[in-house]
Design brief:
Shape: globular
CATH architecture: Roll
Distance between the termini: 70 Å
Oligomer: single chain
Number of domains: 1
Radius of gyration: 24 Å
CATH class: Alpha Beta
Structural class: alpha+beta
């Protein structure tokens, strides 16, 4: 092989290697950004679940026109004000909701958690609901939420 051909081949390899490093770097940064976004979305959902005992605080994690379906065979409630009213209808002073999150995962804006929700009411037996919740988080707010009983 002539020196010139060798040099051209080495430049080609060097160029390909540099290109691969750039692409890998961009992909790594993109994956890190997605992971950071997913982590932030999980935090929004976890903070929302932690705020359940205070319906006024809980709804602050929802987008203005959020859609919520807490019972899988009932229609969604739409809008923060309507959702707040629904929360307050069953989260009375004698009711406590304990949320035990067993597992959480996210893929982009979609966050799913597997939970055990226990509703404790004064002078009544506890109501225990194994649940899978599916949330869509956009711009730091929950835009959609649906719960499904984990039968």
């Amino acid at each position: 092989m002539r020196d010139r051909d060798k040099l051209t081949g080495q430049r080609g390899i060097a160029t390909a290697a540099a290109f691969a490093i750039i692409i890998f770097g961009l992909a790594t940064r993109t994956m890190a950004a997605e992971n950071a976004a997913e982590t932030a979305n999980i935090k929004v959902v976890n903070d929302f679940m932690a705020a359940w005992s205070d319906p006024d605080e809980a709804v602050t994690f929802l987008a203005t026109e959020a859609s919520v379906r807490m019972v899988e065979d009932q229609p969604a409630i739409v809008g923060r004000a309507a959702i707040a009213a629904a929360f307050k209808s069953f989260m009375t002073p004698e009711v406590t909701l304990i949320v035990e999150t067993l597992q959480t995962t996210a893929h982009g804006p979609v966050v799913m958690n597997k939970r055990i929700d226990t509703m404790k009411t004064v002078d009544k037996d506890d109501q225990v609901f194994p649940v899978v919740g599916v949330f869509v988080v956009k711009n730091g707010k929950i835009t959609e939420w649906a719960d499904y009983l984990d039968k």
